[in-house]
Amino acid sequence: MRLLHIFLIIILIFNFNLIKADEIQTENKIAKNLRCLICQGQSVYDSDSEFALSLKLVISNKISDGMTEEQIYSFLKKKYGEWILYDPVLNKNTYFLWLLPLLIFLAGGAIIIKKLYIRK
Amino acid sequence: MRFKIIPTIIIIVFTATFIIFFKGLKNSNIYTPNVDLEKKVPSLVFKSFDTNLDIISENIFNKNKFYLVNIWASWCIPCRDEHKFLMKLKKREEIELIGLNYKDNNKNAQNFLGELGNPYDKIFVDKDGTSSINWGAYGVPESFLIYKNKIIKRYIGPINNRNVIEIEKIIK
User: Fold this and answer.
1) Same domain for A97 and A76?
2) A33 and A80 part of one domain
3) Is B159 left (phi over 0), alpha (psi -120 to 50) or beta?
4) Do residues A18 and A66 share a domain?
5) Are A17 and A64 within one domain?
6) Which one of B59, B86, B107, B161 is most buried, counting C-beta atoms within 10 A?
């Protein structure tokens, strides 16, 4: 009986750790996707500035409040602007940024196809 | 013809890239935060400095008055520089100064105010910096001019004489 108790407790602790680990993982993922606004060139995850430390705390609080990743991004975007997000959203300022690689890819493909056909 | 199209495309692409980067050289790459984000005062709970009570932000800015929310800390050197300007603003009756003590030790904060004077009508504490993030602030020192529950002006960094003149002009 005693053994069973200990066994159950161990299982409980293990499960609890798993849940927590999951939270920490999403927290780190979010922090890596955010730009530290007062120490540019670093992500919030990498930075140890006061701003980044508080922001990490806010993120973990929001996660335990049950907010999803998307909700946290939109919350921070509302507070600090789009600049805080490393992943730029497609809009009229960034469409060139998003479409240029695609255009280059297509142009390259066209050149290759053209060469192949001419060789034949 | 085929041999001419490809080199021309390459030359065009290279010149275009060159022009873009050359123009980019002259652009300032210092990021200036967008200061007109979220005009409304965010709703959050503050802890009072001396009584440790929780106060909702809507209840702080409810009078028909101007408010200057100033984020400060005793360990923050620029806060010392801006302190005399806050003392200057304290003399004005149209404006109420609200301090948010950022990541500070209560005793050090008391000493700071004892040494330089207390310009604030109300002080709140932000022990772990989360209130400041929820407010939308960058750090210390930072000030927000508020009127009718709206943030009308934001000063990132210490307040200087020019800012004081500007604030005095607004609250007249």
Assistant:
1) no
2) yes
3) beta
4) yes
5) yes
6) B86
Of B2, B37, B140, the CB nearest to A81: B37
Domains of chain A: total: 2
User: Under CATH, to which class is B45-171 assigned?
Assistant: alpha beta
- How far is Cα B123 from Cα B97, in angstroms, rounded to an integer? 9
Claim: this prediction has a pTM higher than 0.95: no
pLDDT in tens, chain B (172 residues): 556 888 889 999 999 999 988 888 887 766 666 666 667 888 888 888 888 788 888 888 888 889 999 999 999 999 999 999 999 999 988 899 999 999 999 999 999 999 999 999 989 999 888 999 988 888 889 999 988 888 888 888 899 999 999 999 988 8
A118 touches chain B (CB under 8 A): yes
Contact residues, A window 36-95, toward B, CB-based 8 Å cutoff = 37-38, 40, 49-51, 53-55, 57-58, 61, 78-81, 83
State the sign of the Cα–Cα–Cα–Cα dihedral B122, B128, B134, B137.
positive
The enclosing domain of A43 has a CATH number of 1.10.8.640
Across the interface, do B133 and A53 touch by the CB < 8 Å criterion?
no
Domain of A52, in residue numbers? 2-87
Residue with tokens 């159950």: A8
